[in-house]
Amino acid sequence: MGDILVIGSGVSGLSTAVLLQEAGLRVRIRTAAMSQATTSSVAAAIWYPYKAYPEDRVLAWGEKAFQVFDGMVDDPETGVILREGFELHREPAPDPWWMDAVPGVRRCEKEELPPGYRDGHAFTAPIIEMPVYLDHLLRRFTAAGGTVEERAVSSLDGASAGFRVVVNCAGLGAREISADDSMTPIRGQIVRVSNPGLDNFLLDEDGPDGVTYVIPRTEDCILGGTAEEGEWGTEPDPEIAAAIMRRCTELEPRLAGAEILGHRAGLRPGRPEVRLEAEILENGIPCVHNYGHGGSGVTLSWGCAEDAARLVWEALEKVG
Ligand SMILES: Cc1cc2nc3c(=O)[nH]c(=O)nc-3n(C[C@H](O)[C@H](O)[C@H](O)COP(=O)(O)OP(=O)(O)OC[C@H]3O[C@@H](n4cnc5c(N)ncnc54)[C@H](O)[C@@H]3O)c2cc1C
Question: Are 286 and 38 in contact (CB under 8 A)?
Answer without folding.
Answer: no
